[in-house]
Specification:
By secondary structure, this protein is of the alpha/beta class. The chain has 13 helices and 9 strands. The chain folds into 3 domains: about 90 residues, no CATH class; about 160 residues, Rossmann fold; about 50 residues, Alpha-Beta Plaits, CATH 3.30.70.
């Protein structure tokens, strides 16, 4: 029997004895679904740690085994695999998992330092579960893989390079779907997964505008962002799934209800260019306009500008190439000796 609230170990045990059935509470269900979708070592480690910390206080001296408590509603949890674990062994496993997570977070820190060194802005997709974040990510980066229509499809962070209309490069990152009243201890448990949200220069709050619970979902996500100390970050509200609206004239009303919003259909690829334009306006600028005089024997630099920037004007002479272009500031050092004074 499933309860949509959190139960204490005593409540869960008493209910099971009273009704003669297994009782599952909200946290146990969420962790079971998380465990089914964890793919990376980080995600799997986070899930197992959260499950064991959930199970530990629910063990009693009456010989109740993990087979009864573990694994959520399925068979994917650690309880189903380690039926005879006692408190001491669980605590030891928790300690090892925490050590593993610290190593993983150290690796993520190095990756984050590399991104900062490259001066690439970070855009994070956030939203209630099943809002269409992964589909939107695939559409934005032209990877048209149909995302599963499931809850919590993306437990593990997923990042890609996105090239904006102004040729600026950004990193765009998908995140696990949020939930209404997501327990604080689960936010803490999956803090590493949500680090991209805290580090983001811009948030895309993806909202299923076709859902009757659109306002509730919006408030739930805002509450989690506040919990993560992200309430003041720049946000674009992406009103997704407009193709499912019964009345298309409702779009303008919803755009008034949600300031700084863009209406799109990630699945049908509607108004994606409009969203990209909004991202270009909101994201910190790392593109600079420069004028260069490049020798003819350095055509490799001209090729680099065409690949990484946007040429506005180019003129060939017998000895050199005069070029005006917009390029990422990370490349300016390659052209310093050719800058026009």
């Amino acid at each position: 029997m499933l309860f949509s609230v959190d139960l204490s170990g005593t409540q869960q045990r008493n209910l099971e004895e009273a009704i003669g059935r297994k009782v599952i509470d909200r946290t146990q269900l969420i962790l079971d679904i998380f465990s089914r979708h964890a793919k990376s070592p980080e995600g799997k480690t986070q899930v197992e740690l959260a499950q064991l910390e959930y199970l530990l206080p629910r063990l009693t001296g009456k010989g109740i085994m993990l087979s009864r408590l573990g694994g959520g509603i399925g068979t994917s949890g650690p309880g189903e695999q380690k039926l005879e674990l006692d408190r001491r062994r669980i605590r030891g496993r928790i300690t090892r998992l925490k050590t593993d997570l610290e190593k993983i977070r150290a690796q993520r820190y190095l990756i984050r330092k590399k991104r900062i060194a490259q001066k690439l802005p970070l855009v994070s997709l956030v939203g209630y579960t099943n809002a269409g974040k992964t589909t939107l990510l695939n559409t934005l980066v032209n990877e048209h893989q149909l995302a599963d229509n499931q809850l919590f499809t993306t437990l593990d962070p997923l990042s890609r390079i996105l090239i904006l209309p102004n040729h600026q490069k950004v990193i765009i990152s998908d995140t696990v779907g949020f939930l209404h009243n997501l327990p604080h201890h689960l936010i803490e448990a999956f803090k590493a997964t949500l680090e991209d949200v805290k580090e983001a220069d811009l948030l895309l709050h993806v909202l299923d505008i076709s859902s009757a619970l659109r306002y509730d979902y919006h408030q739930a996500v805002e509450a989690v962002l506040k919990e993560l100390d992200c309430a003041g970050k720049p946000v674009i509200t992406v009103l997704n799934k407009v193709d499912k609206l019964e009345e298309q004239n409702w779009i303008e009303k919803y755009k008034l209800d949600f300031p700084d919003s863009v209406a799109v259909s990630a699945l049908k690829k509607e108004n994606i260019e409009g969203l990209l334009s909004q991202i270009s306006q909101k994201i910190p600028k790392t593109i600079h306009k420069i004028s260069l005089t490049i020798p003819l024997d350095r055509m490799n630099l001209v090729d680099l500008i065409y690949r990484e920037g946007q040429v506005e004007k180019i003129k060939y002479t017998s000895k050199s190439i005069a070029i005006t272009a917009q390029i990422p500031d990370t490349l300016i050092h390659k052209f310093e000796e050719y800058l026009k004074k």
